[in-house]
User: Fold this.
Amino acid sequence: MHKIRRSYPLFASVLLIAYLGTVAPAAAFPPPAVAAFSAWDHGFDGPDAIPAGQTSIRLHNGGREPHQLQLLKLDGGKSAADLAAYLLEHDWAFPAWVRHRGGPNGVGSGGDAEATIYLEPGSYVLICMIPSGNRQPHAALGMQRALHVTEQAPAPPDFHGNFHMAMLDYEFVVVQELRKGRHTFYVVNRGSEPHQVSLVRLDRDASAEDVLAAFGRVPASSLPGRLIGGMSGLEPGGEGVFTAELSPGRYAMICLFPNPASRESHAAKGMVMNFTIE
Assistant:
């Protein structure tokens, strides 16, 4: 098992597997619906409406800077315009009527990321909260897009991955030993507040702490590593699956919620895990 700063004996791994669910090969289950989006500097392209249910959200980054796709569900009849106005007035803090529903996390220029999540009908906003060099999120530069999830009677969520991980307050736990190859990660937020996982392939001699120090200080394209996906923010109890390609090298999992440039970010509280793929 992988866990920041601690290791656990076998019986703890067995308990956590039971806690997260039973590992099952993804190929044994019918594929979810697919919705494809592209990000650029600074906006999103893609469908204006998609059906409710379990959906694989695919993101291609056609910009020069790293971008993510965070899906936010708007409660109480709120609109994308309401959210944009609130964020401007409250220094990019999210209102109580927003729910984090995941999505493919940050990926570098020319890269692709994918996350499978369960979407209920309603009004959503796609947003990128990766900071620019002046510490303002890309959302402040226009990376906000309305999305309508249409009514239908979807099947209940049924997520499967060959790695299982939990996001706690404030640490990651991965049950299986991480290894090279293309993998699906089933992730669940077992914390008491929203969390996310950003997967970073580190440059030689760099660490997760170096990546965190670079956010907000230099353009994100100059990070000492490359963002390669993960899962955007999920509310407590939220779950989903993301895919990632792990080749030999050094990596980090980081929770960049709520703001990687903030001293109060979850990463600053210890929600970071460095690991190596042989």
